[in-house]
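Hi R.,

Here are the chain sequences for the assembly we discussed:
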Amino acid sequence: MKKSEYLYLDHAATTPMREIAIKAFIDAEHEGFANSSGSHNLSRKAKNILEESRETIAGIFGVAPNEIIFTSGGTEADNWSIKTLFNKNTHLDSNLVTTNIEHEAVLASAQWIKDNEYDVVFAKCLINGELDKNSFLNAVNKNTLIASAMWANNETGIIQPIKEISNEVKKINSKTLFHSDVVQAVVSDRIDFHKEGIQSAAISAHKIGGPKGIGAMFLSSEFKLPSMLHGGKQELERRAGTVNVAGAASFASALQEQQNNFDDEILIMTKEKKEFEQIVKDNFKVKIIGEDENRLPHISNIQFEKVNSEILMVDLDLNGLGVSRGSACASGAQKPSHVLEAMGINKEYINNHLRFSFGWSTSLGDGKKAAKILLNSLRKIS
Amino acid sequence: MKILVAMSGGVDSSVVAGLLKSQGHEVIGVTMKLWEGENGEMPETGCCTASDSEDARKVAAKLDIPYYVMDYTESFSEDVVDNFVGMYAKGLTPNPCVECNRSVKFDHFLTQAKKLKCEKVATGHYAKIINNKNIYELHKADYLEKDQSYVLHMLTSEKLEYIDFPLGTISKPEVRQIASELGLKTAFKKDSQDICFVGKKDYRNFVNTRIDISSSGEIVDKNGNKMGDHKGVHEFTVGQRKGLPGGQGEAKYVTKIDVSSKRVHIGEKKDLLTTNFLLEDISFVNKIETTNLTIQTRYNSEDLPCSVRTVRDGELEINLHEPTFGVAPGQFGVIYQGTKVIGGGRISSKVLEKTE
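And here is the predicted structure of the full complex:
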């Protein structure tokens, strides 16, 4: 199958790079290859590209440039926020509150804290896919160092009541750092961190048409975090390692392009997803997860009656439609989703789900095309 | 032809995928994830390790074929591992590879291949399928040293029609040669010999953690005199020599395991000689044959001339022309006519008791 004939609906995993972001990357490597921390002429060029990129990104999120720190991606930012406040100087009663529907980067970091014998609470999730506010807030107390909840779930697209809980967390403990993984949300939602009560956030470039290997940590200037990577004094002594200037430039360019086209892109994603879900619903017994909830426009998680989605996904791939069952796994085999489990989805149906995710490169007609391929496979497999 | 290839990450199945692709077939590679750790991680030793599936993925990428890891852990755990543990608990010697072929590879996997509209499944087993006027026969591989027809004996003609064993006519050195010519990184990978889900560890430890009955009891000689104690019948198999009390004199072997009295009987090598035994749970590739038969009582063991007699449905009495050592209940007896597999079944503990 030629690449051009292949329909890609796995944008929640990653997206193709925008042309303008590829160009920005190449231009930055040409003009700003030098080490941005150096003190000669070429380093200054690199430094300038880096800082302009930071300003662009900060401007888009409505934050100060020094509140944006470049990282290798979302996972690093999540690890940094979750882990580094727990160290040998940390009071043993300190706790961490998060949810059981977080991305693995947060879940596994939190588990690591728990394994180090700190109190970690994984707040429950309601059957509608929203985190249980009571379960979350009941766990927050005067010892809570970090409270962390994602803006929107990467498997279901369901948007979480962040503002409500971030305000309540502040009331209980004004010193708690409120962290949010916004990696998926940035694809199709706009977030004002300060207004929403978010003090740290993980952002990734490759979900919005930027390059892989670069992301950012938003860290409110009111907070300081110990470094996670030790070495040189880059990024205002907060993150060691030669900065990926071309990555930053490309990230900024992708984000700017996304902002310029935001309404049009969202319109297409919304329309294509709606059409796709409608055709599938009309022709096969399915349940669309969070159908009546506030969802990100680009994610559709569908449960198929009596169809194991492992083989369905294989058949879709063989017929030119690339989707996933949730988040990717190194070994290739995919475990039942912890998010669907947390939502209390019956064991009988937990392996019957697929995630279809639209993105900036989605074109008009993709929803209909995808539905056609899907229905063909369903007829074959079921 | 659209063919689903089971790729373990080893050199054999890598070459199968490569050969079929070079013959112009539409090849789809699948690694069956059979076994996992407590938290769903891939095991570190044995097969099904993360590095094995990574090898298979690299080979598939090199060959430019679609490749997937599919989850068969539930079926494998129930049909193969539980059975393996249960057999030891009953004083029998299991053969997990036969169970795996029977219930996982050539059952669930075959069903999935049909769903994906594949015309055949192919594996890297060393065995030959011969189409004799649309009757499909299973034969030993030309390269006898690696022949695996023993562990495939349960395949019937109806199933063989959908199966391809491209290595049936190739030798292992040739396989490595082909792998190297195709530039596959698995070319010189070591063969794995371990029980895949146990790995390099002692199978007894594996079984110990999975059974809760304590079956400790006595070790007795053939006159019923107590020779010592043991920590569980599952730690013994018939024919075993290691770990027995004895001291001077002739070497001692386990001759019988009596689960109901928890007694392990030991004796001399000659006490292990068997001429007649019973196969249960039998199957035939096509129909039963009665002339010029031989039997293997362990994987790749000697072909022993024999006669067979149907006792009742599902049971077959085997009469060896010469007595032999090492017929272990729980292992399979596989009947051949020349290179052709006629069928086989599990060696029953019933007859061994009778022949004492």
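Chain A has a mean pLDDT of 94. Residues 72 and 214 of chain A are 4 Å apart (CA to CA).

Let me know if anything looks off.

Best,
T.
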